[in-house]
Each structure stands twice: as structure tokens, then as C-alpha cells.
Design a protein that fits this description.
- By secondary structure, the protein is mostly helical.
- The chain has 28 helices and no strands.
- Helix 2 crosses helix 18 and helix 12 packs across helix 24.
Length: 639
């Protein structure tokens, strides 16, 4: 990514401010028609993919775009500008009936190529290949046998689908989400973090966990979760919080591999935490026709359980390694937390706006306004304009990545829809699962993790959800539950081998081998692999309206206890080192306790508490014996 200087930096900042003003205006006062809104969105952002992101990584240090970059940036304006200028006439045309003109074919073909190149630069090479393969598939599908055979489409009709339509393709509903909602949330995150919220989150984490054993690791977990809930990007979260927490973890005795893995797992979970949840939550709302507030409510308990699992594993690891608490000089006093508590007001404004019926986009605009006011007050009227501009620039860069990814994903969704490949893939999952829901879920999990290994979370989620929800519908799984199941594994793909980008970023800071760090992450992220299955079989965790308050509380408390003890099984330590037999008995108790059958769950809980009481008794007995022997020795010596 290029960091501009001089006149280029000024020009980029002005462009970014124009983009911000456009999106703030349309988010608050209402968007234009889909074609106008989405074409202007890509008109502003797509050129940045060629100016901000170099064609080769080796060119990253060159902060000036090449002549080719400028040419591509200028050309990328034309297809979107054409749609903007001809929006009224294009809205009147009948798809699949009206002729596609030569100009439209040329511009559409050009746009596909530009989106592919933008994806290669701004997103990843692998994702660009995936988009290219899917686009090619629509032409070769008529010649393929079996379920992947599809009707033949002429080139002009293919271009019509990916370029001219508003429900799918490059300017389809995914780009609509990017233009209508995502940009203002990215801007909210960028401005909020620049205002001092990032440091406040770190102070809160230090205040809450620094006093406990292995404090730095717990600080990493809490601060990364809080930061990631706003930023929505696990990799940027790692670099922001990990640069502080990883050296601190290593300083008190955590091996570099474990320090990197803890930071990666904690950062990866940020997009699971409401109220922002990254791009995926907004796409989920659109794809499931569910209100955003419903998704927030459905996600909250799962996110808490995910972080309980990480904290428990980190705690038992610290006890097993006999790690110390945070040094006193690093601790934060409660007066500092109270003094800076106004930084939480924008959060409150966001939640209040959402739950009083305002749209997510308008809620984000209001929260940005509140954030700037709080920033002004906390800085005593001395807002650093450079920090504000950098926040706006960061938002433009982040939105460029999202816009390119969703434009590419729009091509894929269009191909899956037009060819019927989504249904074919759903049938394959059903066929290889032999009608067994567990096999179907495991297959979907593996597909999501493999797909997410090469492409970013959002496109991986969109593609897999398009395929998986059809298969899970055969098992009468609600649509929202299916999407949350896929969403979790799309996020976990960022930390699992062979291409765990978030784990690799953490390894870069900790100085540990990247693959070794990625292989360590499932140990700390085990709850993330468990929660999606619990969503399927224990809908109480989704705060379902069909569930009573008792059912919700019982399920949540039991699951939390089970996750904590599961962590002790994984680490092999509770009050003291656990034998394999004790670990096996605890593991049985954990899985019995999380059964969706009430009586079986109660049996599991009784088993766990029995094992816990027995282990505590043994531990206390062993503690008492040495002191008793010591007293006898002293008595004999005196005698």
C-alpha cells in the first residue's frame, strides 16, 4: 500500500474527503437510485485500487503511481460514469430482452477486467483467480457434464448480467451494501480510533485484567476484541494492539509462538462482536432479509462465549507456566478509566440509534457526529487535524479494499445464480452427507475454511453462504442460523493453516515461525469452532423469540462453564496438572453438559461439578501435606 507525500497526499486527502461527504450525505438524507448510488460509489473508489495499491509488492516503497496506474485509474472512471449518466434510460430497459449495445459490451468487458485487476492488487491474487475462474465457468458450463452443466449464454447477455443489472453482478446488492452502509461504518471506525478510543480500550483491558496471572495475554484478548469490534479488520487489529501486547507477553514468559497465536485469535474475533461486526453482518442482513438489530442480538452470546474460551485457555496456560502478573508500573488506575469514559458515548449513541429504529447508515452518521464532539471535548478544543485527515484517508483505503472485494464477489454470485451452480453445490453437499446433518455441517465447515484460506473473510462468507444455505434448508435450519454458522468459519479461516493471514501477521510481530503460530491458534480458538454448532442445536444462544428467559440463561451459563472446563482439558491443567484419565472424564462431561436435551445436560453439569469438587479436594489435600510435614520436621528439630 502506498503512502502518498506532498501534492499527491493533498490530492488524495481531498478525494477522500469528497468520498466521505458524499456517503455521509446519502446515508443521512437518503440514497439515490441503486444505479446512481452504486456507480458513484465505484466511480470514487475503484481508481484508488490502482493508485494506492501497486501492481507488484516489490513496488510498495515507491510512493508515486506509475503511468500505467494513472491510465488504469482514469479508465476505471468511464464504465461507472456511463451508468451514472444513463441511469434513467438503463432503469427502463427490460433485462434479457432489450439489446445490449456495442458501447455497453465494451464498457462491461472493460469493467470486468478492471475489477479483476483491482481485486488482485487490493484484495489478493488468489481471490482474483477465483473470480476469473467463476467468470470463465459461465462460458464453459454448457460443455460440462452432470450437475455443473448449464444453459449457454451469449457474451452480450453475460456482460448484461455482470455490468448492467442492479440485483447481481458488479453493481448488484453487494456493492449496494458497500455504498449504502459499509463506508460510513468504516469511516466511523477510522475516526473513532483516531480520536483516542484505541488507547482507552487498551487502558480498560489493562485495568480489568492486568492484576491477574498472565495479565498481558488477557490484556491482548480484551483490547483486541474491543478494538476489532470497531475496526472490523483482524489484520489491522493485530498490528494496532499486538505491537504492545505481544512484546509484553514475551517479557513475562510466554513463548513467542503462543504470544503470536493468542493475539491472532483475539484479533480474529473482533468482527464477531456487536454492534459493528465488520462487513459480514450488513451483508447477512441483506441476504437473510433480517434487521441488523436482530443480527446483533443473535450474535452477542456467541461472541461472549468465544472470548470466554480464549480467556480461560490463556488463564490455564499462565497457571501451568507459572507466569507472573503485570508489573506495577504498567497498571492503570481507575481514575484514568473514569476520566476517559466519555469515549464510550459514541458506542452508546450507535446502540441507542439502532434500537430506536434508525437505519444502520443513519446511526453511523449520528455516531460519527457524536464522536467528533467527544473528541473536541476530550482534546479541550484542540483536535489534531492531521489525525482527522489520516482517519478519513484510512477510511478511503479500507473502503477501496471492501468495494473491490464485493464487486468481485458480485461477479461470483451472478455466475452461481445464472448457471444454477449454487444449487448444484448444495446437492453435492447433501449427497456426500448422506442425509446426516453432522456430516453436512462438517463439509460446509471444511469448504468455508478452505475457501477462506485463499480469499478474504467477506467474499468467503458470501460465496459459501450462497451455496450452504440451500443445503442446510433441507435440514430445516433457519436461514439466519445457517449464515451465522458460515460467518464464524469464514472468520476462523483467517487464523487457520495453511494461509492464516492474521496468524502470519501476529507471527511477524512475535518473531515466531508463521506456520507454527498458525498451527497453535486452534488451541486458543477452540470455542470459535464449537459455537457455530451450538447455534444449530441450541438456538437459545441466538436469543430466539421461541426460547424462554430460563432456557436462554441456562444454556448460556452451562455453555460458559463447559467452555471454561474444555479449556482446562486442552491445556491439561486445572488446579494442578491433569492426568489423561481426568482430562477424558472432563471432556465427556463437557459434551454431555452442552446437550440440547435438558435432563442429559443436567447430568453433564453434575458430572462436571463432581469432577471439579474432587480435583479441588485433591489439590487442597496436597497443599496441606507439605505444610504438615514441615511442622513435624521443625518439632523434631526443636526436640
Amino acid at each position: 500500500m502506498r503512502i502518498f507525500k506532498g501534492n499527491l497526499a493533498i490530492g488524495f486527502s481531498i478525494w477522500a474527503l469528497i468520498i466521505l461527504v458524499f456517503h455521509l450525505y446519502t446515508s443521512y438524507f437518503g440514497t439515490y437510485s441503486p444505479k446512481v448510488q452504486r456507480s458513484l460509489h465505484l466511480f470514487f473508489l475503484l481508481p484508488l485500487a490502482f493508485l494506492v495499491f501497486p501492481s507488484r509488492k516489490s513496488n510498495t516503497q515507491k510512493n508515486k503511481p506509475t503511468i500505467l496506474d494513472w491510465i488504469l485509474a482514469v479508465i476505471s472512471l468511464i464504465p461507472s460514469f456511463y451508468l451514472f449518466m444513463n441511469a434513467d434510460s438503463l432503469n427502463m430497459r427490460i433485462e434479457q430482452v432489450d439489446e445490449v449495445t456495442t458501447t455497453q459490451i465494451i464498457l462491461g468487458t472493460l469493467m470486468v477486467g478492471l475489477v479483476l485487476e483491482a481485486c488482485r492488487r487490493a484484495v489478493s491474487f488468489v481471490f482474483a483467480i477465483v473470480v476469473a475462474v467463476f467468470f470463465t465457468y459461465i462460458f464453459i458450463a454448457p460443455f460440462l457434464p452432470g450437475m455443473f452443466n448449464a444453459r449457454q449464454m451469449s457474451f452480450d447477455r453475460v456482460i448484461e448480467v455482470v455490468y448492467l443489472t442492479s440485483d447481481q453482478g458488479i453493481y448488484g446488492f453487494l456493492t449496494g451494501i458497500s455504498s449504502n452502509i459499509l463506508f460510513v461504518f468504516i469511516a466511523f471506525a477510522a475516526i473513532m480510533l483516531r480520536s483516542g478510543v484505541g488507547k482507552y480500550f487498551m487502558d480498560v483491558a489493562i485495568f480489568l485484567t492486568g492484576r491477574f496471572r498472565g495479565g498481558p495475554a488477557k490484556i491482548a484478548v480484551l483490547s483486541s476484541g474491543l478494538y476489532g469490534s470497531i475496526s472490523g479488520s483482524s489484520v489491522s487489529d493485530v498490528y494496532s494492539t499486538g505491537s504492545f501486547s505481544i512484546p509484553l507477553m514475551k517479557k513475562i514468559g510466554y513463548p513467542s509462538t503462543k504470544a503470536g497465536a493468542i493475539e491472532a485469535v483475539a484479533s480474529a474475533g473482533g468482527p464477531l462482536i456487536p454492534p459493528v461486526m465488520g462487513a459480514g453482518a450488513f451483508i447477512m442482513a441483506e441476504m437473510t432479509s433480517t434487521s441488523y438489530t436482530t443480527i446483533i442480538k443473535a450474535a452477542i452470546l456467541g461472541a461472549i462465549i468465544y472470548y470466554i474460551g480464549i480467556l480461560a485457555t490463556v488463564h490455564f496456560e499462565a497457571v501451568a507456566l507459572n507466569l507472573p502478573k503485570l508489573p506495577d508500573e504498567w497498571k492503570v488506575k481507575y481514575q484514568v478509566i473514569l476520566k476517559n469514559s466519555p469515549y464510550l458515548i459514541p458506542f452508546g449513541a450507535m446502540v441507542y440509534s439502532l434500537f430506536t429504529g434508525l437505519s444502520p447508515a443513519k446511526s453511523a452518521v449520528i455516531s460519527i457526529g457524536v464522536c467528533i464532539v467527544i473528541w473536541f471535548i476530550m482534546s479541550k478544543g484542540k483536535i489534531n487535524i492531521n489525525d482527522f485527515i489520516e482517519g478519513v484517508n484510512y477510511a478511503a483505503r479500507g473502503a477501496t479494499v471492501i468495494a473491490a472485494a464485493l464487486a468481485g464477489a458480485g461477479i461470483i454470485v451472478a455466475v452461481l445464480t445464472q448457471t444454477g451452480a449454487a444449487l448444484a453445490m448444495s446437492n453435492i453437499i447433501l449427497a456426500y452427507s448422506f442425509g446426516n446433518i453432522w456430516l453436512a455441517l462438517i463439509l460446509i465447515m471444511l469448504v468455508t475454511l478452505i475457501l477462506g484460506a485463499g480469499i478474504p473473510t467477506t467474499p468467503a462468507y458470501v460465496i459459501t453462504a450462497t451455496v450452504a444455505t440451500g443445503a442446510l434448508a433441507a435440514f430445516h435450519i433457519p436461514v439466519l442460523t445457517s449464515h451465522l454458522f458460515v460467518f464464524y468459519f469464514a472468520i476462523l479461516a483467517d487464523i487457520t493453516p495453511p494461509v492464516g493471514v492474521t496468524a502470519f501477521a501476529a507471527a511477524n510481530i512475535s518473531g515466531s515461525p508463521p506456520m507454527k503460530t498458525a498451527l497453535m491458534t486452534p488451541k486458543f480458538a477452540f470455542a470459535g469452532f464449537l459455537v457455530p454448532f451450538l447455534f444449530i442445536f441450541s438456538p437459545e444462544l441466538l436469543l430466539s423469540e421461541q426460547s424462554s428467559l430460563f432456557e436462554i440463561l441456562f444454556t448460556f451459563i452451562v455453555t460458559s462453564i463447559a467452555v471454561i472446563l474444555f479449556a482446562s482439558v486442552i491445556v491439561g491443567y486445572l488446579f494442578q496438572k491433569l492426568s489423561m484419565i481426568k482430562r477424558l472424564l472432563l471432556l465427556i462431561g463437557v459434551f454431555v453438559s452442552i446437550s440440547n436435551i435438558f435432563l442429559i445436560s443436567v447430568v453433564g453439569i453434575l458430572l462436571l461439578f463432581g469432577l471439579l469438587a474432587f480435583e479441588f479436594y485433591i489439590f487442597k489435600t496436597k497443599q496441606a501435606k507439605p505444610s504438615h510435614s514441615l511442622k513435624e520436621g521443625i518439632a523434631k528439630e526443636n526436640y
